[in-house]
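R.M. (postdoc): so does anyone remember the format we settled on? I'll just put the structure tokens first.
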């Protein structure tokens, strides 16, 4: 928003309103502007290590409550910001909330869900993220017409979901696994009966209790993550987060208005296009909710890889032909296909890498390393989100339309990885992952078998 740029980034505002003095691709190339976005994720990266401790020792519920408090305080700082320092501090506090929330919520969902709907229920997390993005785009579209304080209203409205999240954390029940893990056996069993809707929970309770006893023998979960038998889960969790961000999705979602203005859309049209992308994001995530427990994780990821590659390759070719450094607009005949293929890319990501990047790690780690594993997952995700957020506008300036070709190359690599190294986890109970998934995989089984032989003294 121009009023926002004028208030906090006057240099960018001056460049944007100077015709033909700067490449269209470079008008927003400013490290401080990028830091406004990326500082959120750098703070979340650091906070997730503290969140790992609270998730394991204090429970999933309290961790979510802490996240909610961070969200509320961060919104207050942002909405009342008088200078850039106050703005960045608010973003850092919000980032701490993201670190705690991303640590606790996927674990919470995986642990309360019955096995047959675990995938769909967990993806509701990502669905609500996409709904939040859509609402944010709609709010930005509306407040951009309020001068000169529309940006302040836009940042302040975030207080509504922050308060709702905090209230939800107060009233939600703790997971049975967390209660049993922390020694509250009877309470854990009662909660398990309540969420399963039956008194006959002894088999599941005994499985959780057994896993909890094994987990208690692990004094250093982060160190335990490095053991050979945990190598498959750790490698897959890390690579899924790197690949998820390397699709370029956050570059498009973060900077959709900037991107469309760069391509020649007018200011209102760019925000309107961002709203369309947000709507596509929500609807496509619903596809994943309905299909992930039917067709499986691998099928969604592989299909999306083909669709994302073709979409980005076509966009790169189109922009390479029509958009120059100094062009002021993209003709109607070319603008519409750009939006269509951008939406096609977002749709494929939303029913695959978006939700599954969180679902698969949350359901594959054993209990003794689950909290630490989720912490590493969140940390890597936020690290690469920070890198993309901090670098995208500079990359856009230097690589121009080639940035889409760059991301499409990553899509090829990640699709090959899924084809060769990612096992299917559909319909497999969390406690049986080792026996039914890792020991059966052509590549990963060597890590499990070798480790067991070493424990038994055979090697």
């Amino acid at each position: 928003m121009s009023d926002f740029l004028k208030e906090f980034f006057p240099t960018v505002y001056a460049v944007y309103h100077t015709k033909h003095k700067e490449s269209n691709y470079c008008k927003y190339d400013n490290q401080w502007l990028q830091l406004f976005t990326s500082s959120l994720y750098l703070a979340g990266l650091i906070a997730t290590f503290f969140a790992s401790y609270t998730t394991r020792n204090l429970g999933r519920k309290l961790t979510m409550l802490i996240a909610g408090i961070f969200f509320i305080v961060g919104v207050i700082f942002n909405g009342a910001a008088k200078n850039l320092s106050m703005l960045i501090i608010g973003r850092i506090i919000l980032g701490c909330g993201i670190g705690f929330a991303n640590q606790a919520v996927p674990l919470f969902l995986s642990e309360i869900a019955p096995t047959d709907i675990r995938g769909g229920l967990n993806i509701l997390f990502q669905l609500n993220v996409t709904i939040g993005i859509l609402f944010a785009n709609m709010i930005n579209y509306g407040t951009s017409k309020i001068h000169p304080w529309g940006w302040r209203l836009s940042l302040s409205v975030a207080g509504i979901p922050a308060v709702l999240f905090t209230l939800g954390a107060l009233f939600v029940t703790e997971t049975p696994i967390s209660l049993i893990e922390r020694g509250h056996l009877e309470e854990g069993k009662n909660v398990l009966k309540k969420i399963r809707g039956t008194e006959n929970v002894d088999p599941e309770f005994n499985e959780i209790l057994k896993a909890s006893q094994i987990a208690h023998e692990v004094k250093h979960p982060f160190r335990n993550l490095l053991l050979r038998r945990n190598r498959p889960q750790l490698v897959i969790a890390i690579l899924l987060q790197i690949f998820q961000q390397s699709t370029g999705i956050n570059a498009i979602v973060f900077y959709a208005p900037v991107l469309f203005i760069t391509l020649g859309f007018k200011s209102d049209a760019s925000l309107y296009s961002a709203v369309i992308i947000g709507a596509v994001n929500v609807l496509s995530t619903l596809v994943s909710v309905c299909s992930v427990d039917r067709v499986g994780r691998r099928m969604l990821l592989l299909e999306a890889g083909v669709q994302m590659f073709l979409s980005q390759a076509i966009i790169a070719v189109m922009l390479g032909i029509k958009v120059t450094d100094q062009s002021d607009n993209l003709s109607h005949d070319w603008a519409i296909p750009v939006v269509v293929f951008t939406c096609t890319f977002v749709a494929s990501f939303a029913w695959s890498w978006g939700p599954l990047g969180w679902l698969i790690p949350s359901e594959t780690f054993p209990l003794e390393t689950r909290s630490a594993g989720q912490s590493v997952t969140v940390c890597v995700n936020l690290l690469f989100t920070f890198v993309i957020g901090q670098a995208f506008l500079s990359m856009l300036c230097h690589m121009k339309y080639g940035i889409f070709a760059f991301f499409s190359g990553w899509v090829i690599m990640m699709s090959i990885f899924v084809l060769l190294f990612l096992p299917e986890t559909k319909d497999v109970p969390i406690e049986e992952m080792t026996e039914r998934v890792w020991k059966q995989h052509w590549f990963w089984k060597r890590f499990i078998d070798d480790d067991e032989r070493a424990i038994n003294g055979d090697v």
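R.M.: ...and that's the designed sequence above, right after the tokens. Also worth knowing: The chain has one domain: 23-455. The chain has a mean pLDDT of 84.
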